[in-house]
Amino acid sequence: MHEEMTLTRFYKIHNKDINLAIERALREDRVFDDITTCSLLKGKSAEKKISAMMLCKEDCIVSGLDIFKRVYRQIDPKAYIKFFYNDGDKIRNKQPAGIVKSSLKNLLTGERTALNFLQRMSGIATLTNKYVKLLKYKDSHILHTRKTTPNFRIFEIAAVKTGGGDFHRFSLSSAVMVKDNHIEACGGIENALKTLKKGRVKPDRLEVEVKDMKELETVLKHGKGLVKIVMLDNFSETYVNKAVKILKKNGFMIEISGGINEKNFMKKQKKGIDYYSIGALTHSYKSVDFSLEF
C-alpha cells in the first residue's frame, strides 16, 4: 500500500516518465505538423501573442493542471500560464479556470493534447471524490486498481489521489499480491503461502486474495506473520460480515474488491474494512468538459 505517498512526492518520483508520456502524446498528434494551422496562419499572424481562457463547462474536482501546463511548456517554454484553482479544488460549471498566453500557432496546436490530459484526470478525480464522500467509516480508504489505460496509468492514479483516494500498487513491482491465478498456478493457497515463507518475503506489503471462507481459514493457519492484507474478492454480504470479524480478531488488514459501483457501495461498507479497491475509477469514468476560448 502507498496511501502515505503524497501527490507531490509521486510527481517527483515519476517526473521523467511524465515528461516522456507528454512528449509521446504530442508526437502522436504531430503538433509540429499541424497542416490546418500552418495553412491558415503564416508569418506574423502565426506568431501573434494572444491569451486564451480555460473554461470549465461542468461541475467537477479539477485534476491535471500541472500536466496541462507541462504540455504547453514542451511546445513553448515561455508560455504564460496562470490557474485560478489548484488540483483537488471544486470548480463550478461555466467558471474560468485559467489563462494561457502564447502564439496563436502554439495555442492551436497544443489545445487538444493539453485538454485531453485535463479532462480525463478531472473525470477520475470527480468520480473518486464521489466515493470518498460516501465513506461511512473514517479509517477506510478508496484505492485505485491496475485496471488502467495502457500508457496512461501515471496520470490516472494521480487523479485518484487528487480526488481523495489513495495509491495502491503502481505496478507489478510495487508489492506482493497473490491473486486467484497465482494460487491456481501454485496448486492452492497453502502451497503459495509456504513458497512465500521459504522466500522470506517481507510481510509489510504482502496481500493475499481469498475467494471463500475455506481459503480464508488457510490464510489464518499459514499466513500469520507473513500476510499483512487479506482481499475479500466478490464475497457475499453474509460472508463478509463473518470474515471481517475473524480477520480483525487475528490482526489482518482487509480489502474489499469486485463489482463495487456507486449503487451498491453504501451497502458493501462494513466497519473494520480498511480498503475498497474500485476498478471503475480508472475504467468507467466520464471525462469532464473543458475548453480553451480565444
Contiguous low-pLDDT stretches (5 residues minimum) are none
Q: What level of helicity do the residues show?
A: 40-55%
The CATH class name of the largest domain reads Alpha Beta
Order of helices and strands: HHHHEEHEEEHEHEHHEHEHEHEHE
Q: Reading side by side through the largest sheet, how are the strands ordered?
A: 6-11-10-9-8-7
**Rg (C-alpha, Å):** 23 Å
Describe the largest sheet: 6 strands, parallel
Averaged pLDDT: 94
Count of discrete alpha- or pi-helical segments spanning 4 or more residues: 13
CATH topology of the largest domain: TIM Barrel
Strand content: 15-25%
CATH architecture of the largest domain: Alpha-Beta Barrel
Can you walk through the features of this model?
With 294 residues, the chain is α/β, with parallel strands linked by helices. It folds into 2 domains: 7-122 and 286-293, Alpha-Beta Complex (Aldehyde Oxidoreductase, domain 3); 133-283, TIM Barrel, CATH 3.20.20.70. The protein has 13 helices and 12 strands. The chain has helices at 7-13, 15-28, 35-40, 44-47, 65-75, 104-134, 153-162, 180-186, 189-198, 213-222, 237-249, 265-268, 280-283; strands spanning 49-56, 60-61, 80-83, 90-91, 96-103, 141-143, 176-178, 206-210, 229-233, 253-257, 275-277, 290-293. Helix 11 links the parallel strand 9 and strand 10 (253-257). Helix 2 (15-28) packs across helix 5 and helix 5 runs antiparallel to helix 6. The longest helix is centred in the middle third of the chain and has 31 residues, at 104-134. The two termini are 44 Å apart.
